[in-house]
Automatic annotation (TrEMBL):
Residues 129-402 form the Sulfotransferase domain. The chain crosses the membrane at residues 6-24. The gene is LOC105365309. This is Carbohydrate sulfotransferase 4-like isoform X3. GO terms for biological process: N-acetylglucosamine metabolic process; sulfur compound metabolic process. Keywords: Membrane, Transmembrane, Transmembrane helix. InterPro entries: Gal/GlcNAc/GalNAc_ST, P-loop_NTPase, Sulfotransferase_dom. The keyword Flavoprotein does not apply. It comes from the Eukaryota. GO terms for molecular function: N-acetylglucosamine 6-O-sulfotransferase activity. Pfam families: Sulfotransfer_1 (PF00685). The keyword Transmembrane helix applies.
């Protein structure tokens, strides 16, 4: 009997040993996978298929610990494979779109003559076209014109998460410039604040970026993952950026040592038009940087002085345009701006102008409108008293930028508010 008992006891012991051995094996397998450096896209692709991911690592230990580990492991791997797939797909789309592109090839100081020259993942340098302006100054219109160019990655309001403020000086401007620098370099690993701002119910951080948003609709899981956005962004030969929260002076940092090749256009609009347009925005009235004509126009004066200096120091990388001039003659101004940026005036851009500058359809922020009339609505929508108040606060800014004063109610309704201006260095 004791023999029989010890026999059973031995079997019992052996079972326990085998059990622990198996467990240990599983766990070290798991650790090995977790501690592996992240595989390159190609490796990942060849090693894994979606199918396998859901079954590896399978264990028969179905307690919460193991299913948790299995879950995170599988989700993580699926995300990495999905990122690699979408990036590869986009790479092909861009190559196709760029087949007949006319490269600058030495014109306008830009020497790119093939796609790789402009693609970060191939150690190239994309063309980086910046619009610097303030809220409601026509930047949606100009931003969409730039974005109608093929293979463009649109950094839409990169400083959205700073709130409704104007950034003028350090230390805030230093932080802002760091953000811009990371975006130009497509390094989203340090932009978690921006990404989480977008992820948490501010989709317009991304939804103006046509190519990115299209993929985001299909691949919601990876859309706000910094690893995805970084790789995705690095595929694009063209980047455009619209900035409405930072004044011109701090941007000198990019023009001074311009190894990124950033080109900046300052977009200016009649303060009466700006303030009329802002009245329709519910986020505006509580923020002085937004509703106060004094703040707007003192920024316009300091931007004027900076612009006068920049246009002498950086004639190839800095330009000014007024929204009114652009709207009245969108074709010739767009052509000139594209030359300045080094961009080809592509048929897509022409088509965009054909369809967006003639009729008036769509809502407030729509750029489907009669572009010739859009900048001048304020003449009918503002009372003469409101106009007078703005003109008092904005006297100097309006003179510098070539805007004509309305003299009375009747005059306001029909006069031409735009005249010449020239950039003179007022400190000289
Ligand atoms: C408004 O100003 C215009 C231009 O100076 C002038 O000709 C006109 O008489 C003025 N109208 C009124 C009602 O004051
Ligand atoms: C506007 O420009 C034209 C031609 O360049 C010039 O003759 C005229 O004097 C300018 N007007 C003002 C107000 O600067």
């Amino acid at each position: 009997m004791s023999r029989k008992l010890s026999f059973y006891f031995l079997i019992f012991l052996a079972t326990i040993c085998i059990f622990f051995l198996a467990l240990n094996q599983r766990y070290s397998n798991y650790l090995e996978h977790r501690l592996q450096p992240i595989l390159s896209d190609a490796e990942l692709r060849s090693r894994m298929k979606y199918q396998e991911l859901f079954t590896v690592p399978t264990t028969k230990y179905d307690d919460p610990f193991w299913s948790y580990i299995r879950g995170t492991y599988a989700m993580e791997s699926v995300a990495l494979v999905e990122i690699a797939d979408v990036v590869e797909q986009q790479r092909r789309i861009i190559q196709k779109e760029m087949e007949d592109y006319v490269y600058p090839n030495g014109k306008y100081d830009v020497y790119a003559n093939k796609l790789d020259d402009l693609v970060i993942e191939k150690q190239g340098n994309p063309l980086r076209s910046v619009i610097l302006t303030t809220w409601r100054s026509g930047s949606t219109f100009l931003g969409d014109i730039l974005n109608s160019h093929p293979a463009n990655f649109y950094h839409y309001e990169p400083l959205l998460h700073f709130g409704i403020i104007q950034i003028r000086d350090p230390p805030l401007s230093d932080e802002a410039l760091e953000n811009l620098d990371s975006m130009f370099k497509c390094d989203y690993s340090s932009l978690e604040r921006y990404l989480s701002f977008g992820r948490n119910s501010h989709p317009w951080v991304f939804n103006h970026n046509t190519y990115l948003w299209k993929q985001c609709q299909l691949h919601k899981r990876i859309c706000w993952d910094n690893r995805f956005v970084t790789k995705f962004c690095k595929l694009f030969p063209f980047q455009s950026m619209k900035i409405v929260r930072l004044r011109l002076q701090p941007m000198e940092k990019f023009l001074e040592q311009n190894e990124l090749g950033v080109k900046i256009v300052l977009l200016i609009r009649d303060p009466r038009g700006v303030l009329q347009s802002r009245k329709h925005r519910d986020w505006c009235p509580s923020e002085p940087d937004c509703f106060d004509p004094t703040a707007l126009c003192s920024d316009m004066v300091s931007d004027y002085n900076t612009a006068a200096r920049f246009s002498k120091l950086y004639p190839n990388t800095f330009r000014v345009i007024r929204y009114e001039d652009l709207s009245v003659d969108p074709y010739s101004h767009t052509e000139k701006l594209f030359e300045f940026y080094g961009l080809h005036f592509h048929e897509n851009v022409q088509r965009f102008l054909d369809t967006h500058t003639k009729t008036d359809i769509g809502g407030l922020s729509s750029t489907f409108r009669n572009s010739k009339a859009a900048p001048f609505h304020w003449r009918n929508d503002l009372d003469f008293e409101e106009v007078e108040e703005i003109q008092q606060e904005c006297n100097l800014a309006m003179k510098l930028w070539g805007y004509v004063f309305a003299l009375n109610e009747t005059h306001q309704r029909y006069f031409d508010p735009v005249t010449n201006y020239s950039l003179r260095d007022s400190e000289a």
